[in-house]
Design goal:
Number of helices: 17
CATH topology of the largest domain: Aminopeptidase
Protein name: tRNA(Met) cytidine acetyltransferase TmcA
Oligomer: single chain
Largest sheet: 14 strands, mixed
Distance between the termini: 47 Å
Structural class: alpha+beta
InterPro entries: Acyl_CoA_acyltransferase (IPR016181), Bact_Acetyltransf (IPR050832), GNAT_dom (IPR000182)
CATH architecture of the largest domain: 3-Layer(aba) Sandwich
Radius of gyration: 27 Å
Helix content: 25-40%
Number of domains: 4
EC number: 2.3.1.193
Organism: Pseudovibrio axinellae
Pfam family, one: Acetyltransf_7
CATH superfamily of the largest domain: Gcn5-related N-acetyltransferase (GNAT)
Amino acid sequence: MSEFVFCLAQQGDAESLADLRATAMRESLEALGRYDLKRARERFLDGFVPAETAKLVHGSQTLGFFVLQNMPDHLWLNHLYIHPSFQGAGIGAKVLEQVKAVAKKKSKPVRLGALKRSKANAFYQGHGFLKAHEDEFDIYYELPLTNIEAGPAEFLLMQAETGNAERLADLRHEAMKDEWAANGLTNYPLARSHFFEDFKPEVTLKIMSEGELLGFYAFHEYAEYFHIDMLFLHPKAQGRGIGSKVLAHLKATATQARKPIRLGALRISRSNDFYRAHGFNLTHYVDLTNYYEYRPNLCLQKPETFRVEASTIEDFNLLAEIRQQAMQENLEANGLFDHALYTSYFKQSFDPACTHKVMVNAEMLGFYVLWNKQDHLDLERIYFLPNAQGRGIGKGVLDLIKQQASEQNKPIRLEVLPKSRANAFYLRNGFGLIEKREEEYLYEWTPQDCSYVISSFRVEPVNKADFNMLADIRFEAMKAEWAANGMFDHAVYRRKFESTFDPAFTQRIVWGGETVGFYVMWVRESYLYLERFYIHPKMQNRGIGGDVLGSLKQQAREQGKPIKLETFPRSRVNAFYLRNGFKLTSASQDEKNYEFLPEELRAPA
């Protein structure tokens, strides 16, 4: 795996990068008799500066990182670590090409230190670094400026901030103005205001090179798919392969998550050819927009072939080693460092009858422990070696366990450490978070026959006693938009809601045992009227709204009726409904009117 992009680190990356560094350095430190995990982590964390740290990212995987500090007369390569699972693939050499490009641009030599008895010494010497001096534990090197031959630096992905909105809107205008004009869209102030409505820094990445903004993209993750909301490059940055590299990175993310990517492009746009050339297929079009989808092979094919075998007492040592490799980073991220103690706990509870090995060919890549309780299946453990992750095997095993749960008509329950990538894995695979404890999170997956489930949430009827709870959710969901539209009399809006509240047409949305939203849908003679639809802000951007709307659209298809609704003129939900197939039918100073028309009711083109 040699393909990756550079991504500037954030403060929240500190713990995981400290773990990666400790793992990468372990062999060299043990050779010197200096391996102290706690000290190794603390030394890195004490000096961690996100602005100087670049991660090497392939999809959602961090392969390594480096720290480059700009000194008055040289560049100091303070850290360069590749996770052992990804070493030997040419990644380090590509990082040095980036470092050399920066050094050439700044006209400065590069200096660094490497542990004695480390394989890194031969690596740096092989790339032109010259020994300068050494001390008791380290050898120091320099790459003179005269020895540096390098091309331009690669781009760096950087998290957007709220204050970037104006600058990004300017770049978007430069990238799109000609295509907007070609499609008859010349109200540029309106387009700019729509951008500010939709802009979410937390899902937006800037594409930077040597301090210059080249472009940006917004990448949303929902329960069943990813959505590229925006991907723009400044005209002068186009044609250099940057868009292709960004798209390859996003496709890798989708492949690892086993989800498709969806996006929209203007009907008259060169981007249509671009997306088709990168494996995106046209699914439909609405008005001036073509909609595309990329489906990774893993979404179309079965995961890598594996088999499940029963374990025996003799397997314990190998199982414990797999558990250690799979869990070390997560345990230490949660402050748990006594690995011998945790291995002893595992040994005490080890039961071969409930422990299942996951085999690919003749190699054991992982295992899981499943207890068959009276009212549920308890997935106590599921572990895979690092080199088995990202290959679809874990999802395949989870699907197998889900099949067993469906056959027995029982839910699956499991616990996960709070700081663990497994949380995202289970959420992606339909598990609902039902309880947060200080030491662990509790998840549950319920077969469809057990209850009415939409993804990891369900829809339930309400009664009059629910009014205050629903009114509070409505207030939290709407207060910002009321303010944006000059509406501040919240007591009046609550009384108006109470006067029209009818439990017969109101459904609440339950996720993780908690009511997170609700909708009000009236069944008219010729259409369905979606009067209200609210998701609590803390649960937005998880795909819940899109999935609920999908179920309502299916209801409309089954009844052969359109769905109609109104929104405020200044509201983020306008873009949400347009993305989900609704068409703007009219607009006034006070409201916008939308309609979803099932395919069967549409007039032929």
